[in-house]
């Protein structure tokens, strides 16, 4: 017991590290499962980055749709990225975060379009924001933020 | 234009390496780098210390002494002189002009500062019970001077800070991580220095009094409230029990006699002692 | 008001252009959100507070842009683009701009 108290800093660090790893990877797995499932559901809704042109009378309605997601890093990934800063190379721990944020934002945009009865979203664009900037610096909120937007097209028929 | 929906099966944007594997590789690499830096630092510091003349050391010592509110203490100075008289004639310690200072602090400790300055904290003086114990403390600090540990510690500490700041930036989380790892390495190293200073102290004490009585008394009293041994793995000083064992081994090996100690004379006793 | 981010309003014909309209907003999160985000930073997952903040500021930027377009007498904004910048730490600037037009 005393040794725990003597090295309180180290104990806290290890605890956070383990908590970060377990909960972080759990959250990631759950998130990916939900992303894949919803992507399959909305597969029929076409999203393209092209503008496209439509013959007169085919389009009933068009509207801007958008979706955003902010994904947080976890303690484990932060440490991993910090270590990565020493060696350089691919920051693998952040790759999945960026991927999740983008796909989640696109999914939310698609869900909005689907609610409006749209068949497709054209001219989709992605944008990143920086609220909790500098994911790698100490005592700062690390997050990856993505905004997706496009024009939802509701067809006549 | 025809739109055919496709569901992706493989995610190319995410690496498949398991994060724990990545962690293991990087921690291993980091340990290697730190070890390398530490060894290089050790070599350079040792080289620099051998080249540093006592004159420069005295100047550094004056700077370091400013950190403490101290008074020159004649009774302690007298004890030190008595010890110095028993040094062998070829001892490198004769180059120094030793000064003992008493600093008001609760801390039970004494420090060897560059330039032959020894600072004894009043907290330690209150704990000391016999002349022999006090001589052991002073002789231990002299041991640090004999091995030039006072400079080495300073040099390594400085080197570690500068090296990590240069490699990883001044105040990034990376440099914090690396420097704390290096400093705990350093603590481990300093345990060896303490043990060496203990051995030097014991020899000098025996020369002074003709016997080794009182050498372990101080640590023995501290042993009870020192806590678990494992907590000392990363501490700067060895566990009191370990120090006692090492000292006793040396006493047996060199066949030092163990006689009764001399009571502490009144002149070093602190007035506020209850 | 019809909003699109393509050159035209699909299915409708543009009869008049009015020029650029823009709306922007700088929004900061409050301490409570920051605290929660700090906790979330340990375990990972979505930062709902920040997502909401992002959504709110996007809506506000769009509303401001819409107000500008309405002042011009437009009934649609085409070619809308979003841009973000970090003006201050912990604050999000969201900026929306587009071309105000009138459609049939």
In words, what does this structure look like?
The complex is a heterotrimer of chains A (157), B (274) and C (104). With 157 residues, chain A is an alpha+beta fold. In chain A, helix 2 (8-41) crosses helix 3 and helix 2 runs parallel beside helix 4. Chain A has helices spanning 2-6, 8-41, 75-87, 92-115, and strands spanning 46-47, 59-74, 120-129, 143-155. Chain A contains 4 helices and 4 strands, in the order H-H-E-E-H-H-E-E. A 4-stranded mixed β-sheet of chain A has the order 1-3-4-2. The mean pLDDT of chain A is 85. Chain B has 274 residues and is α+β, with helices and mostly antiparallel strands. Chain B has a domain at 19-53 and 131-268. In chain B, helix 1 (19-51) crosses helix 6, helix 6 (149-168) packs antiparallel against helix 7 and helix 8 packs antiparallel against helix 9 (240-253). The longest helix of chain B has 37 residues, at 173-209. Chain B starts with 18 loop residues before the first helix and ends in a 21-residue tail after the last helix. With 104 residues, chain C is an alpha+beta fold. Chain C has a single domain (2-103), classed as 2-Layer Sandwich (Translation Initiation Factor IF3). Chain C has helices at residues 31-43, 48-71; strands spanning 2-3, 14-28, 44-46, 76-85, 91-103. Chain C has a 4-stranded mixed β-sheet. Chain C is elongated. The two termini of chain C are 12 Å apart. The mean pLDDT of chain C is 85. Classes of the chains: A alpha+beta (157), B alpha+beta (274), C alpha+beta (104). Chains A and C meet through helix 2, strand 2, helix 3, strand 3 and strand 4 of A and strand 1, helix 1, strand 3, helix 2 and strand 4 of C.
Indicate the radius of gyration of chain B in whole angstroms.
25 Å
Strand content of chain A is 25-35%
Give the helix/strand class of chain B: alpha+beta
Give me the side-by-side strand order of the main sheet of chain A. 1-3-4-2
Provide the helix percentage of chain B: 55-70%
Number of helices of chain B: 9
Instruction: Write down the overall mean pLDDT of chain A.
Output: 85
Q: Which regions of chain A are unreliable across 5 or more consecutive residues at pLDDT < 50?
A: none
Q: Summarize model confidence as the mean pLDDT of chain B.
A: 77
């Amino acid at each position: 017991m005393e040794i725990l108290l003597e090295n309180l800093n180290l104990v806290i660090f290890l605890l956070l590290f383990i908590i970060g790893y377990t909960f972080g990877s759990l959250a990631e797995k759950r998130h990916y499962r939900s992303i894949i499932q919803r992507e399959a559901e909305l597969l029929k809704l076409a999203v393209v980055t092209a503008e496209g042109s439509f013959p007169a009378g085919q389009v009933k309605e068009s509207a801007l749709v958008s979706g955003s997601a902010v994904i947080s890093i976890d303690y484990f990934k932060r440490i991993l990225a910090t270590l990565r800063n020493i060696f350089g190379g691919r920051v693998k721990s952040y790759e999945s975060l960026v991927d999740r944020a983008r796909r989640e934002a696109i999914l939310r945009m698609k869900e909005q379009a689907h609610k409006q009865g749209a068949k497709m979203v054209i001219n989709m664009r992605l944008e990143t924001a920086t609220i909790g900037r500098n994911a790698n610096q100490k005592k700062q909120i690390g997050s990856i933020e993505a905004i997706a937007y496009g024009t939802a097209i509701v067809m006549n028929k | 234009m025809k739109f055919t929906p496709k569901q992706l099966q493989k995610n190319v944007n995410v690496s498949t390496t398991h994060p724990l594997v990545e962690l293991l590789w990087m921690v291993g690499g980091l340990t290697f780098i730190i070890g390398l830096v530490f060894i290089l630092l050790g070599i350079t510091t040792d080289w620099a210390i051998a080249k540093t003349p006592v004159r420069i050391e005295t100047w550094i010592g004056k700077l370091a002494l400013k950190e403490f509110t101290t008074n020159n203490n004649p009774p302690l100075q007298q004890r030190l002189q008595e010890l110095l008289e028993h040094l062998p004639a070829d001892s490198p310690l004769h180059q120094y002009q030793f000064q003992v200072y008493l600093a008001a602090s609760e801390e039970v400790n004494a420090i060897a500062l560059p330039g032959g300055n020894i600072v004894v904290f009043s907290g330690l003086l209150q704990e000391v019970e016999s002349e022999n114990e006090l001589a052991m403390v002073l002789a231990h600090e002299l041991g640090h001077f004999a091995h030039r540990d006072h400079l080495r510690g300073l040099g390594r500490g400085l080197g570690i800070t500068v090296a990590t700041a240069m490699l990883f930036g001044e105040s990034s989380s990376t440099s914090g991580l690396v420097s704390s790892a290096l400093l705990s390495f350093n603590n481990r190293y300093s345990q060896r220095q303490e043990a060496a200073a203990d051995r030097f102290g014991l020899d000098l004490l025996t020369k002074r009094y003709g016997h080794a009585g009182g050498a372990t008394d101080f640590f023995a009293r501290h042993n009870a409230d020192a806590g678990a041994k494992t907590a000392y793995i990363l501490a700067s000083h060895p566990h009191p029990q370990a120090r006692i064992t090492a000292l006793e081994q040396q006493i047996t090996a060199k066949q030092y006699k163990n006689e009764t100690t001399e009571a502490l004379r009144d002149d070093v006793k602190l007035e506020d002692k209850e | 008001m019809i909003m699109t981010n393509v050159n035209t309003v699909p299915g409708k014909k543009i009869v008049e252009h009015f020029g650029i309209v823009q709306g922007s907003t700088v929004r900061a999160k409050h301490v409570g959100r920051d605290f929660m985000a700090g906790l979330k930073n340990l375990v990972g997952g979505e930062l709902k507070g920040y997502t909401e903040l992002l959504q709110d500021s996007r809506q506000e930027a769009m509303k401001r842009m819409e107000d500008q377009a309405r002042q011009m007498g437009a009934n649609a904004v085409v070619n809308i683009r979003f841009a973000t910048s970090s003006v201050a730490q912990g604050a999000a600037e969201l900026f929306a701009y587009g071309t105000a037009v009138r459609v049939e």
